[in-house]
């Protein structure tokens, strides 16, 4: 898979951009705040229909158009999947409703695929892209919520059922927590939870099984990739830490272990009936605790992922350099996994990935991505690349929202 043409209008600092993208490696060089990351964000936005950098779509509009009567932004990508060529178009248009104040506004999102109007759910994952940002080190070092979101986002781009089950699970979880909170301070009727328990298990079971399968596939790839990035000095293993016990005898409610104490060994296969039975049993065991706390304490919304390098937990004990390399290995493993699932390599987007790596790790990384179908890598300094690498790359300079070709030195 590769992007053939990218068109941006009023997106971030790009007022107007028409760009033909070649296959292979593309190096974007430029100073900070010139638009390098914005270009990667645009491609990722068309892939996931959400930004990796902000939850407020209004921030994506060029500041020059915000004062217009009808500010808008438009992103279009023509891309190739196998032998087929497709086009995805996304427009953000400000709308003013009757119930909004005179200064209030909202952005409407319009999506068209090959000229036909589509929902966001229909567009996610058509253009497969894997993005690495400097802040992705937080996937290893920060809260479990980020790792759950990463798993959900990654699986959702290749599994439509997972997206549907995740949406349904979150709705049921919200309603179930509301019921649990309503019981606090009065005598509860546990029978009112039966329906919500059944729905929680129904939708949550698929999430757990699919996540575990994804971790196994990522493990297969990461055990090949990580040693290459570390000069054969480290091996890396992922563990899915489920709050639902699998393959172990049930415990009483007050002994429910933390997610990091219930990791599922790599290679363990779990089935939907097995997970559903264990999930249901543990909900019954945890009922007293949930009624006391007024919240759901069992389910995929409490799960986590551990990164073990040479048996050491990188989440807690890894240095910043180790955590950065771990996150990068994870993204490269994602490329391999998506390639297997789609039989087509995704576009790889690497933002300022070399500046924090030493020479050995830089060389290992550049050798690893050399076979990519299309990779766009940004940098402020071309000295991070060898002359040989630049000679076989397309080299462009980004300056104030404009892009020009450069001649390799």
What does the model show?
- The protein has helices at 36-48, 120-123, 138-141, 144-156, 160-183, 194-229, 272-285, 287-293, 314-317, 320-342, 359-368, 387-391, and strands at 2-11, 14-20, 24-29, 72-81, 84-95, 106-113, 116-118, 129-132, 236-241, 263-264, 304-309, 312-313, 347-350, 374-379, 394-399, 402-405.
- With 409 residues, it is of the alpha+beta class.
- Mean pLDDT is 88; it is low at 248-261.
- The chain contains 12 helices and 16 strands.
- The strands form 3 sheets. Strands 2-1-4-5-6-7 form a 6-stranded antiparallel beta sheet. A 6-stranded mixed beta sheet has the order 8-13-14-3-15-16, with helices on both faces.
- A hairpin with a 2-residue loop joins strand 6 and strand 7 (116-118).
- 39% of the residues are buried.
- The longest helix is centred in the middle third of the chain and has 36 residues, at 194-229.
- It folds into 2 domains: 2-128 and 344-405, Rossmann fold (3-Layer(aba) Sandwich); 139-315, RecF/RecN/SMC, N-terminal domain (Glutathione S-transferase Yfyf (Class Pi), Chain A, domain 2).
């Amino acid at each position: 898979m590769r992007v053939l043409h990218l068109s941006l209008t009023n997106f971030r600092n790009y007022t107007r951009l028409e760009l033909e993208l070649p296959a292979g490696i593309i190096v974007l060089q430029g100073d900070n705040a010139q638009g390098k990351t914005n270009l990667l964000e645009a491609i990722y936005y068309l892939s996931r229909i959400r930004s990796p950098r902000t939850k407020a779509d209004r921030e994506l509009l060029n500041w020059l158009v915000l004062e217009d009567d009808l500010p808008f932004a438009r992103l279009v990508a023509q891309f190739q999947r196998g032998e087929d060529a497709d086009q995805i178009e996304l427009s953000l248009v400000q709308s003013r409703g009757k119930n909004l104040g005179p200064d209030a506004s909202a952005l409407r999102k319009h999506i068209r695929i090959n000229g036909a109007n589509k929902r966001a759910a229909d567009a996610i994952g058509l253009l497969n892209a894997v993005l690495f940002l400097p802040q992705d080190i937080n996937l290893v070092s920060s809260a479990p919520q980020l790792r759950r979101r990463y798993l959900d986002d990654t699986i959702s781009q290749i599994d439509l059922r997972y997206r549907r089950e995740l949406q349904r699970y979150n709705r049921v979880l919200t309603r179930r927590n509301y019921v649990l909170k309503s019981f606090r301070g009065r005598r509860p009727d546990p029978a009112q939870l039966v329906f919500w328990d059944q729905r929680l298990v129904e939708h949550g079971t698929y999430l757990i099984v699919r996540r575990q399968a994804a971790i196994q596939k990522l493990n297969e790839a990461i055990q090949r990739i990580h040693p290459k990035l570390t000069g054969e000095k480290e091996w890396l293993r992922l563990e899915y830490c489920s709050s639902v016990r699998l393959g172990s005898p049930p415990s009483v409610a007050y002994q429910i272990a933390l997610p990091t104490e219930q990791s599922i060994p790599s290679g363990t296969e779990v089935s939907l009936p097995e997970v559903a039975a264990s999930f249901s049993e543990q909900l019954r065991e945890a009922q007293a605790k949930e009624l006391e706390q007024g919240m759901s304490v069992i389910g995929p919304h409490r799960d986590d992922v551990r990164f073990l390098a040479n048996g050491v937990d990188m989440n807690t004990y890894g240095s910043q350099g180790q955590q950065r390399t771990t996150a990068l290995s994870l993204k490269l493993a994602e490329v391999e996994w998506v390639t297997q699932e789609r039989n087509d390599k995704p576009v790889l987007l690497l933002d300022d990935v070399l500046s924090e790596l030493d020479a050995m790790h830089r060389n290992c990384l550049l050798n690893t991505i050399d076979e990519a179908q299309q990779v766009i890598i940004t940098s402020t300094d071309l000295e991070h690349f060898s002359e040989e690498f630049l000679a076989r790359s397309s080299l462009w300079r980004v300056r104030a929202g404009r892009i020009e070709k450069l001649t390799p030195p």
